[in-house]
Amino acid sequence: MSGPQCCSNPPTLDPSTGSGHVEKFGGLDTYVTGSPDSKLAILLASDIFGYDAPNLRKLADKVAAAGFFVVVPDFFYGDPFVPGDDGSYANLPTWLKDHGPDKAFEESKPVLEVLKSKGVSAVGAAGFCYGAKVVVELSKHDFIQAAVLCHPSFVTLDDIKAVKIPISILGAEIDNMSPPEVVKQFEEALTAKSEIECHVKIFPKVAHGWTVRYNVEDEAAVKAAEEAHQDLLEWFLNHVK
């Protein structure tokens, strides 16, 4: 692998992809899809490659088709992570200094405020890799009603211990950002808190990023991603209502 696993299989970004559209939402350019009249909303927090990723938008459209209004904010202000010309990831630490998940967490709050001002009564949030850190921060408060973390990056055991809402964690067998033994620690911490509903699943034979950075021509990869998407959707249907 030429770089850290959080950066493998970068997507080909396409701002025109998806059946939704981009509008300003809480001060951020945001991909929105689904009925704006829905009282139930889902926020998707992208990985470091941003909100123009076709597979992420496809998932947003799928969640919207189940009756949710879905928002995918551009927390990077049009500046997602781009590997170096030689494909290297040496510039990642510098990029992260200007695009920290703590900053994205703060910027998600106005987005959630706009949803509430539009009459939305319940919100779920899902985060992918980097985005999972944003969502776990939201989960420590009453900003959202349910959370899903997909192959999380930067999430610690202390983060998980502070979660206050129903949470689902979908991990990969091959993942050096959140390896299975760490995800199992997350599960133990959550099950120790009987008041928190949780679901933890480790998907065999898949690598970090598999839910949104899969090759659409690889049948096994698509099948594993779709299974995760179904789990995500069912979690929200059960807990965001």
UniProtKB/TrEMBL annotation:
UniProt region (Disordered), positions on chain: 1-20
Domain Dienelactone hydrolase: 29-238
GO MF term set: hydrolase activity
Top-level taxon of the source organism: Eukaryota
InterPro entries: AB_hydrolase_fold, Dienelactn_hydro
Residue ranges, compositional bias (Polar residues): 1-19
Main location: cytoplasm
Gene3D superfamilies the UniProt entry points to: alpha/beta hydrolase
Gene Ontology annotations for the cellular component aspect, listed alphabetically: cytoplasm
Pfam families: DLH
Keyword annotations: Cytoplasm
Cellular localisation: Cytoplasm
Name the UniProt record assigns to this protein: PREDICTED: endo-1
Record organism: Prunus dulcis (Almond)
Lineage of the species this protein comes from: Eukaryota, Viridiplantae, Streptophyta, Embryophyta, Tracheophyta
